[in-house]
Amino acid sequence: MDTKRLIIVAVGGQGNLLVSRIIGEASLLSNVPVRMSEIHGMAQRGGVVESSIVFGDTKSTIISDGEADVLVGFEPLESLRALNKCNAGTIVITNLSPLSPFTVTTGGSTYPDLDVLQALIREKTAKLIALNATAIAKEAGNILSVNMVLLGSLVQTGSLPLSAESVKKAIQTRTRKAFLESNLSAFDLGFSAANTLS
């Protein structure tokens, strides 16, 4: 199979690592070779968390600048910061609900305009799916399920060698029972939203 390189960027606490584990589990269920690595940074203090996931026959999880086939950003500014990993063929999926960094909340800097941010991403990549995943997560019944909304959007693009069914099965094995219903609902709503935006 062709190698596919996926980068997921988020702020600590947004559930990036859970999504990475679900993707890994779904890959195992589907007999798809996969390698993963994570950079936690200052995750507990709201810092960036980055996951690199490579599908196919490869020996490394390193995704160099310009090599990502897909970028998923749980926070819009983090999507912009990771743009150097993208190329003219990259698909980008980003949440449009900002989590302002410390420098913005203290008045030391300003958050970039979301329209400008989207224009910069579109200019460098093949496709941008931008949605308010936070609002969709609320609709699903749990604001913490932003990660599942974005996972559903990612699977809808067909850019990964994974079916929706295998990912949902992995969600069932990796999610606490108390959150399972809202996570599956968020996944479905994210899938539908990406279909509308495609």
How is this structure best described in words?
By secondary structure, this protein is α/β, with parallel strands linked by helices. It has a single domain, classed as Pyruvate-ferredoxin Oxidoreductase, domain 3. Helices cover 43% and strands 18% of the residues. The chain is built from eight helices and six strands. A six-stranded mixed beta sheet has the order 2-3-1-4-5-6, sandwiched between helices. Strand 2 and strand 3 form a beta hairpin. Helix 5 packs across helix 8. The longest helix has 21 residues. The radius of gyration is 16 Å and the shape is globular. It starts with a strand and ends with a helix. The mean pLDDT is 91.
Task: Please provide the ordered H/E string of secondary-structure elements.
Answer: EHEEEHEHHEHHHH
CA radius of gyration: 16 Å
Number of domains: 1
Question: What CATH first level would be assigned?
Answer: Alpha Beta
Q: Strand pairing plus helix content: what structural class?
A: alpha/beta
Please mark out the parts with pLDDT under 50 across 5 or more consecutive residues, or reply none: none
CATH architecture: 3-Layer(aba) Sandwich
* Count of DSSP-assigned helices: 8
* Number of strand elements: 6
Which strand order spans the largest sheet, edge to edge or round the barrel? 2-3-1-4-5-6
CATH superfamily: Pyruvate-ferredoxin oxidoreductase, PFOR, domain III
User: Terminal Cα separation, in Å?
Assistant: 25 Å
User: What's the pLDDT, averaged over the residues?
Assistant: 91
Shape: globular
Helix content: 40-55%
The proportion of strand residues reads 15-25%
